[in-house]
């Protein structure tokens, strides 16, 4: 579900023609829809309303300050994974007590800054990290809340690079070790271990892995409570799917239907960390065709965006739907499915200009005829798009634009050659 649609053969983001933005802001450009961001945030809020959860939007998926400000104003807390993300959350007006801080490699500096800022919960991922947190909290004479991130050994059935809740990954502490962890650290004076954190991977297109992980965790919490430990909160992480293709993902309410009954009456404060389900369908990457070229075996549409702007296809073989911003004569409004084949379409690879064979945005995709100067929209690019962009090949990163109704503004300017060399 999003607010991008074709009107009279032209792609609109809310009430703004995408081609107008491209004409003024240039290409490549990321375009975000405020209404879509808020729609998905509120859908999650409503679906889980009975549990009155704290929703901590996962900053890593789309971190622009204007986006964070919008969500902070809607009441969102934030899931962060670095000192830099804490700085962004605070700069956007985020409430520090509504920030949860995960990550296997928190440095002393990051922990000290987070303690000073009054971060809500440290999601601790190892024994050594807990000891360090307790030491630094004691040193600062501050009490902090800590959640143990448990690894429940559940298969989320997603790409191996984004699976986090299986035993062989680096994340969290084996659920079998959790009781011993509480025995050792559960009565620390400065780092109060009073919550459990889960994040099993992403994107997860079914509620079942959550159900399995939550059941295991509730058993653990019951055992901990029997031993006299007070566990007051459960953070079930992020990972809800998004529509890379139409109707691909369950809606928030479908996850909630299976998850809420498990947690009803548990006496636990519930935290959610959705990223992609809020940001993914809220963003487009718009790019311009530079050349069309017939290779030895394949046809290439060479565009001005590249793996440096959107690395997901290269890194995970992720599929993003691509289609012209302006529909030519006889070109239908698309069904956003990877195998959608418009009449007179040809099979092409959409590639960038970077010197890597992995530099592609799509492979073997049937697209309407495209020519030099045409604009293409890469859909579902809001999550893990700009945030993973790099300057490889000394390519300035693209601007980000936020649309609200019939208004739009640049919320991060295009980088310049000076930006590339700043600090050298
Ligand atoms: N919470 C924690 C602790 C996480 O590590 C993540 C994502 C999230 C929440 C949010 O997950 P989401 O709801 O956005 O799926 N770059 C990859 C995704 C990496 C996800 C990392 N952790 C991609 O492009 O698919």
Describe it.
This protein is an alpha/beta fold. It folds into two domains: 4-32 and 280-421, Lyase, Ornithine Decarboxylase, Chain A, domain 1; 34-279, Alanine racemase (TIM Barrel, Alpha-Beta Barrel), CATH 3.20.20.10. It has helices at residues 18-25, 34-47, 65-73, 83-91, 108-117, 127-140, 178-185, 208-226, 252-263, 276-279, 312-316, 417-421, and strands at residues 4-7, 10-13, 16-17, 29-33, 54-58, 77-80, 99-101, 121-124, 144-151, 173-174, 191-197, 233-235, 269-272, 283-294, 299-303, 322-324, 346-351, 360-367, 375-378, 400-404, 407-412. Strands 4, 14, 15, 16, 17, 18, 19, 20 and 21 form a nine-stranded mixed sheet that branches. Helix 2 runs parallel beside helix 9 and helix 5 (108-117) packs across helix 6. The structure holds ligand LLP. Ligand LLP is lined by residues 58, 60-61, 79, 102, 162, 199, 202-203, 237-240, 273-277, 312, 316, 383-384.
């Amino acid at each position: 579900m999003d607010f991008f649609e074709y009107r009279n053969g032209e792609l609109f983001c809310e009430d703004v023609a995408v081609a107008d933005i491209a004409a003024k802001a240039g290409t490549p450009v990321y375009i975000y829809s405020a209404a879509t961001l808020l729609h998905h945030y509120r859908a999650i809020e409503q679906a889980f309303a009975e549990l009155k959860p704290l929703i901590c939007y996962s900053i890593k998926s789309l971190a622009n300050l204007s986006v964070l400000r919008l969500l902070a104003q809607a009441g969102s807390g934030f899931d962060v994974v670095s000192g830099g993300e804490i700085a962004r959350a605070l700069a956007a007006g985020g409430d520090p007590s509504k920030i949860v801080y995960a990550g296997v490699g928190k440095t002393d500096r990051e922990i000290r800054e987070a303690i000073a800022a009054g971060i809500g919960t440290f999601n601790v991922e190892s024994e050594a990290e807990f000891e360090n947190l307790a030491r630094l909290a004691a040193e600062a004479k501050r009490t902090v809340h800590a959640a143990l991130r448990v690894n429940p050994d559940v298969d989320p059935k997603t790409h191996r690079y984004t699976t986090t809740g299986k035993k062989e990954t680096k994340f969290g502490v084996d659920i079998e070790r959790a009781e011993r962890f509480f025995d050792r650290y559960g009565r620390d004076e400065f780092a109060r271990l009073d919550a459990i954190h889960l994040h099993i991977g992403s994107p997860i297109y079914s509620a079942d892995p959550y159900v399995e992980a939550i059941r295991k965790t509730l058993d653990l919490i019951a055992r901990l409570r029997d031993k006299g430990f007070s566990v007051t909160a459960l953070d079930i992480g992020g990972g809800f799917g998004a529509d890379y293709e139409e109707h691909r993902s369950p809606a928030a309410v479908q996850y909630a239907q299976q998850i809420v009954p498990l947690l009803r009456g548990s006496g636990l404060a519930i935290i959610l960390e959705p990223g992609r389900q809020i940001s993914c369908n809220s963003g487009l990457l718009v790019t311009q065709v530079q050349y069309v070229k017939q290779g030895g075996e394949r046809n290439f549409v060479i565009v001005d965006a590249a793996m440096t702007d959107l690395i997901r296809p290269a890194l995970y073989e992720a599929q993003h739907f691509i289609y012209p911003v302006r529909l030519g004569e006889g070109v239908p409004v698309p069904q956003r499915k990877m195998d959608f084949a418009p009449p007179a379409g040809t099979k092409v690879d959409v590639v960038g200009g970077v010197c890597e064979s992995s530099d592609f945005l799509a492979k073997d995709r049937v697209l309407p005829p495209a020519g030099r100067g045409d604009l293409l929209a890469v859909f579902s690019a809001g999550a893990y798009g700009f945030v993973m962009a790099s300057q490889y090949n000394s390519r300035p990163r693209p601007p980000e634009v936020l649309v609200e109704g019939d208004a739009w503004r640049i919320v991060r300017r295009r980088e310049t050659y000076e930006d590339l060399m700043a600090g050298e």
